[in-house]
């Protein structure tokens, strides 16, 4: 029998990782609370927290409220940025910075040019401005591109973004001037990654599916907490699924930009943002405008069919809607559920929680871009 001794160094790193993950997911906590939640001795927590504070990874935020002796409340530091984020969509790119506590800050945005060379020039200009205004930790900070297309995450390669006509772009090589590691990922995968990090139902699910509504339509799958990318990094690309009856890709039936283009209204502003057009479409739909009802009814039917198909194909615990529009289920839940009941009937096996993303004010992919760096940082403790 071999007597294996525990490696105290690796054990300490494992415990540090556990403490950091708890603080990053919870936001803030006292030492006593961390000891209770992690099961570690309070004396060990004191030592670990002291080291993490000296390494500038955590900081004291305030003191606990209530009677008796006040306890220090700790949180991940915000003294440096963990990520420089480029949330790329077909029409607009949002530039943001992320922090170790999971928070983010939008710093600017610009119209996404069709020409990648012009896009690169604008990105570098914004990056140099961020360098002047925010502290970068060269061991942790990374640049992240959230992209509307097929992305090989491991190779940092944009395989294809059909709506931008960009393909075969190695983002690390294209932006080597930045002097930081560059990460690239599909917008739907990043959205689901954000939900995995911040939402208990997705984190605890065996299978989860994210349906991403941008200018196009995308999807992402998670199994036991891991994003499924597939052999060629195209798992979840539901927009390219073709319906055999009409030989039509699902993108044409669920893409909000294509749906909105079908609206027949002289007061509909074609050049408005996707969100503004969607809000106006909702107003017309609520008012029973005849040029809108048939378009929305068809959209709801196709969406219910997609949910039904994903339900039987993946048998997920939860399906999340979100992207550039983050209130689709809130808006159409009654109609979607009615249509689902018509399609499925009394099939009790079909049991899935459907909801909108928890991120209402920003694309969830932006949040996920920072989470991508946070997860990479946590792996550094392994």
From TrEMBL:
Keywords, sorted A to Z: Kinase, Transferase
Example GO molecular function: kinase activity
Keyword Iron: no
Pfam short name (any one): ROK
CDD domains (UniProt xref): ASKHA_ATPase_ROK
InterPro entries named among the record's database cross-references: ATPase_NBD, ROK, WH-like_DNA-bd_sf, WH_DNA-bd_sf
Stated name of the protein: Sugar kinase of the NBD/HSP70 family, may contain an N-terminal HTH domain
Naturally occurring in which organism (per UniProt): Fervidobacterium gondwanense DSM 13020
